[in-house]
From TrEMBL:
InterPro entries: ATP_synth_b/b'su_bac/chlpt
Record family assignment: Belongs to the ATPase B chain family.
Coiled coil: 55-136
Official protein name in the record: ATP synthase subunit b
Topology term for the membrane: Single-pass membrane protein
Gene name, Swiss-Prot/TrEMBL: atpF
Keywords, in A-Z order: ATP synthesis, Cell inner membrane, Cell membrane, CF(0), Coiled coil, Hydrogen ion transport, Hydrolase, Ion transport, Membrane, Transmembrane, Transmembrane helix, Transport
Keyword set includes Cell inner membrane: yes
PANTHER family membership: ATP SYNTHASE SUBUNIT B, CHLOROPLASTIC
Segments traversing the membrane: 35-51
Keyword Mitochondrion on entry: no
GO cellular component: endomembrane system; plasma membrane; proton-transporting ATP synthase complex
Subunit annotation: F-type ATPases have 2 components, F(1) - the catalytic core - and F(0) - the membrane proton channel. F(1) has five subunits: alpha(3), beta(3), gamma(1), delta(1), epsilon(1). F(0) has three main subunits: a(1), b(2) and c(10-14). The alpha and beta chains form an alternating ring which encloses part of the gamma chain. F(1) is attached to F(0) by a central stalk formed by the gamma and epsilon chains, while a peripheral stalk is formed by the delta and b chains.
Subcellular location: Cell inner membrane; Endomembrane system
Amino acid sequence: MKRLFFVLNFILITTLVYANEGEHGVNLVKDFTWRFITFIVFAFILIKLLKNPVKNLLVNRTDEIKKAIEEAERAKAEAEKELNNYKSKLSSMEKELEEMKKRAMDAVEKEKELILEDAEKNIEKLKKFAENLIESEVVKAKEELKALTVDLAIKLAEERLNSTLDKETKEKIAEKYIKMLEVQN
């Protein structure tokens, strides 16, 4: 409003200055006045015709800018929310990863202990098996030695008996010796 008042004052002062210059100034003033009136009428018509469309255009543009700003703020808030969500997920995933590492290490330790225990049990079983095998071989060897000794003793006894004793006495002694050996076994 102040600008319009300033422009009108400027035009009025300019007109008065030219009016003081005489006849040439009067024609100039008339010409300028008609031009000014035409401009005012044209400006008035333009304002009347374009006021609402320009106003609507500016209001619509303002609304679009506000909506864009609101949408940008909403998007920013959503992005911040997502960022915080991802940060929390990342921190929980790091904790979970540490827990998984710990559980894996515990499982490895337990498996190692089980393997060592199983190996010790197997070693113990193998020792017992070897001891039993050795004992059974020793027993078998003793029995073979006994059998061999008995056979040798019988052969020796037979040879001695054959060389010194008669047949009847030999048979009695052999039977006695056999009975004695059977009792020992």
